[in-house]
Design goal:
The structure holds 2 protein chains of 2 kinds.
Chain A lengths: L2 H33 L11 H14 L2 H32 L1 H15 L7 H8 L3 H25 L3 H9 L4 H39 L4 H10 L3 H29 L4
Chain B lengths: L13 E12 L2 E13 L4 E5 L6 H8 L7 E6 L2 E2 L7 E4 L11 H11 L4 H14 L15 H14 L4 E5 L7 H18 L2 E6 L2 H7 L2 E5 L6 E6 L14 H33 L4
Parallel strand pairs in B: 3-8, 3-9, 6-7, 7-8
Antiparallel strand pairs in B: 1-2, 1-4, 4-5, 9-10
Helix pairs in contact in B: 2-3, 2-4, 3-4, 6-7
The chains are: A mainly alpha, B alpha/beta.
The complex binds adenosine-5'-triphosphate (ATP) and magnesium ion.
Chain lengths: 258, 281
């Protein structure tokens, strides 16, 4: 291995290695503070105990079936998001009046804590997976709509002119130029939407004590199984990170070089 | 009446009659094209030359039917046009390949619109890719190509629609001098081979003289016709002709015309800048 090659290899591994080291360092520090009595172990369980309870939580609490449930809810919300979010964005781009009328409050909705409306959803859909999916869907809709509009109206003028110069009809202009040009931005919207959906779905599961990973955290907390609760939270974080990374991979795979 | 009217050999394929375009901007109206008239014969190579901002692209958009807020008439083979016309193909000044399509799919785009069967489409597209010298790059995406290669993709895409009239708006403006010369040769070769009626917009004098049968020189604001120059140099013209004496004379003549306009343009812009920055300083 030559010196420059080693240098680039180092460059590639250094940031993640450093990130991991910071994380480990943080846990070690927490551990030391708990052992030294600075932190109360009945509020924050020692990291070693959390790691120890991972196996128990995975086996005894059926974490994988819970995970599949949450994932299923997430993907259902994702399908709805893609269909209705993109369609909404397209309509708003197509009819400027609609855009002028709605864009601001769609944007406002993006920053509103929709989860808190769960009682309303419970009244409509009952204490069921449907409620959870619907909240995930509604909460994640704004980024998909907004990114779709952004992508469509961001299409370079010259590409639209190319379409015109080839005498494209209105629908050809949309399907052959505007939509493919907007697709990368729409993907970003869908990825953001799915992440919003995951966060909200776990949150609602926790709040209404129903379903997958969110309910597990609620259960463990009510049993005052602190180490288990934190282990479950770690698991959710891990799932989110993996989910995020997978989405990025899928997105890169779906769009060719540009 | 323009000076070359008597020199018409056949019925013109393109006629621009008294084109006038005015843009309304917050700082007042800008006349981009001021009553320009000219015509182009079948198979002819005509260049439009003028300083930056004189209205070349605007004229190009009018002829291509992309701009409809103009006065005057554009007609193709005797038919007045009121929008994009299928016998006019355009190559734009900006990079205009579709980044989501491979080279071959970019070039096959106009063929796809005609509903040509896939295999035939691919064969036709290959033919034009070869013509612009991009064989071997069929399955690449534009993002993987250089700027000059992308412009050739745009050119091939427009050629694939087999337009009767090819409009090119400074297609090689963003390229370095060497690439630009090589591509110029390529375009000329294709133009001669296909007997393609071509209208090239440029601000490069050498390029214009080397390629054209006629050059329309435009003035700076308002964009008027300053002069029409017939280039009587023998063909085929390769890059070597650039060194000849006759070539030099044409360049000098057009350069003199343009220098006047360009310096007027610079002065105009300086005044503009000074005028607008005065209160701030
Ligand atoms: N859509 C528009 N709205 C307002 N003014 C415009 C518009 N398009 C062009 N202009 C103005 O019209 C004039 C001519 O523009 P045009 O793009 O035709 O110039 P050009 O000769 O192609 O210049 P260049 O060589 O730099 O490409 C410029 O002064 C420009 O500011
Ligand atoms: Mg221009």
């Amino acid at each position: 291995m030559s010196a420059p090659a080693r240098h680039t290899a180092l460059r590639a591994y250094l940031p993640p290695a450093f990130g991991l080291a910071v994380l480990v360092g943080f846990f070690v520090a927490v551990e030391i503070m708990i052992q030294g009595g600075i932190l109360n172990r009945f509020i924050v369980p020692p990291p070693s105990e959390i790691i120890g309870s991972f196996g128990r939580v995975i086996v005894e609490e059926h974490i994988f079936s819970r995970f599949m449930l949450t994932l299923g809810e997430c993907l259902s919300a994702g399908v709805m998001l893609t269909v209705f979010g993109v369609a909404g964005g397209v309509l708003m781009h197509r009819f400027k009046l609609l855009q002028q009328a709605c864009e601001t409050w769609v944007a406002a909705m993006a920053s509103a804590p929709i989860v808190l409306m769960y009682p309303l959803f419970m009244v409509i859909f009952g204490r069921s997976s449907l409620t959870i999916v619907m909240i995930g869907f509604i909460a994640a809709l704004p980024p998909v709509i907004l990114k779709t509009i952004e992508g469509l109206s961001g299409t370079r003028k010259v590409l639209i002119n190319v379409g015109k110069s080839f005498n494209l009809t209105r629908s050809q202009q949309f399907w052959k130029i505007l939509f493919p040009a907007a697709l990368p931005t729409i993907f970003v919207g869908i990825r953001l939407g799915l992440i919003f959906a995951l966060i909200n779905i776990v949150g609602v599961e926790f709040l209404i004590n129903y379903g997958g990973l969110g309910q597990l955290i609620n259960d463990l907390a009510e049993r005052y199984d602190l180490a288990g609760t934190y282990a479950a939270i770690c698991f959710v974080i891990l799932v989110s990170v993996l989910f995020f990374m997978t989405l990025e991979k899928v997105e890169r795979w779906l769009r060719p070089a540009d | 009446m323009s000076a070359d009217a008597s020199a018409r050999r056949s019925d013109p394929i393109l006629v621009a009659d008294d084109i006038y375009v005015r843009f309304d901007t917050p700082e007042g109206g800008v006349v981009a094209v001021d009553h320009m008239s000219f015509d182009v014969n079948p198979g002819e190579f005509v260049s439009v030359i003028g300083p930056s901002g004189c209205g070349k692209s605007t004229l190009f958009n009018v002829i291509g039917g992309l701009l409809t807020s103009h006065q005057g008439i554009v007609s193709v083979a005797g038919e007045t046009i009121s929008g994009p016309h299928q016998s006019i193909g355009m190559v734009f000044q900006e990079e205009s390949t579709f980044p989501w399509r491979t080279v071959i799919d970019n070039v096959a785009f106009p063929l796809e619109l005609t509903g040509m069967p896939k295999q035939k489409r691919v064969d036709r597209a290959r033919h034009f890719i070869k013509l612009v010298g991009l064989d071997g790059f069929e399955s690449r995406y534009p993002g993987e190509l250089s700027g000059g290669m992308r412009q050739r993709v745009s050119l091939a895409r427009t050629l694939a629609s087999e337009p009767k009239i090819l409009l090119m708006d400074e297609p090689f403006a963003a390229l370095d001098e060497q690439t630009r010369l090589l591509l110029g040769d390529k375009v000329l070769q294709i133009q001669q081979q296909l007997k393609q009626t071509t209208l090239l917009i440029t601000h490069n004098i050498t390029e214009a003289v080397q390629m054209s049968d006629r050059i329309l020189v435009m003035t700076y604001r308002p964009g008027k016709m300053k002069r029409i120059v017939n280039i009587d140099l023998p063909r085929p013209r390769t890059s070597e002709i650039v060194g000849s004496e006759a070539f030099g004379r044409y360049v000098a003549q057009i350069w003199a015309d343009l220098r006047e306009e360009a310096s007027r343009g610079m002065r105009d812009q300086e005044d503009h800048v000074l005028h607008h920055e005065a209160p701030a300083s």
